[in-house]
Amino acid sequence: MRRLRVGTRRSQLATTQTGAVVAALKKERSDLEIETVEIVTRGDQILDVSLSKVGGKGLFVSEIEKALQDGVIDIAVHSAKDVPAILAQGLVIGAIPPREDPRDLLIAKNGQTLRDLPEGARVGTSSLRRRAQLLAIRPDLEVVPLRGNIDTRLRKLQDLDAIVLAAAGIHRMGWLSGQRVQAEGVSYDVTPLTPFECVPAAGQGALAIECREQDTEVLQLLAAIHDRETERCVMAERAFLAEVGGSCQVPVGAYAAPSFSRLNLAAMLADARGNVVLRGAMMGENARELGRELALRMLAGGGDRLLAMTYEV
Ligand SMILES: NCc1[nH]cc(CCC(=O)O)c1CC(=O)O
User: Porphobilinogen deaminase C-terminal domain spans which residues (predicted)?
Assistant: First the structure.
């Protein structure tokens, strides 16, 4: 293999993430010629409608998967949390590099924490998972829809009191220094939300590199940038998500951390309005079984009824 074509979405975050993966691969194989191919997905084009309405996160991935299947590209770099539970025919995740900070960040215009935002403050997020968990702590907040790439969302903070973004994205962009985010000519204090306050999305902070199942040479190359511990955590989180049938219509969070030889998995399920938030945690050895087991327990413990409640949001 002499040439590798890498598919990426066109957002600033996507191209930055892809650039980091390309650099890591070049370090492994300096003779390799790597070409980056930008793909505009439907999810990138439809920015004014909430994701739960236009068909979910798969929108960002399905066109890229087609390019892999058609041989237009050889690998695709995704944010692990954007990858659906079931991959397209003939494709596999070839590598999961070491995870970044998995937490969500509260970025308040005047530097407040979640506790000292003023009564009725307007907080921007289109994620049902973030919305439910914010309202569980501060029922008085007005949570308003906020879509677009992370640069766009940061700019929209001008018209709001606060927004919530993943730490990983901000960090990979090089916009986070200490407790401040500096980007697009603005600078704000940030407060990380702990996984107890706001359980992250399954896979948040991790990248997933997808390729063709049959491409043994590519799989061999990707093994060099793979992190087995991150994979184990992400597997437990995704097993939880798959078992609860996580679509964008339901607020679901799952976060696993290694604890000696075992994994500690924390998860949350809520109804779409965020009136009821159900939390659970469990330790286990086998990542997939742990994710499934915690999901089954939480569904049996009332989660099934939460998921059955659907609303127009
Ligand atoms: N849904 C978009 C998306 N996909 C991955 C990230 C952040 C980076 C990551 O989690 O790895 C973001 C932005 C955000 O949620 O703030």
Answer: 232-299
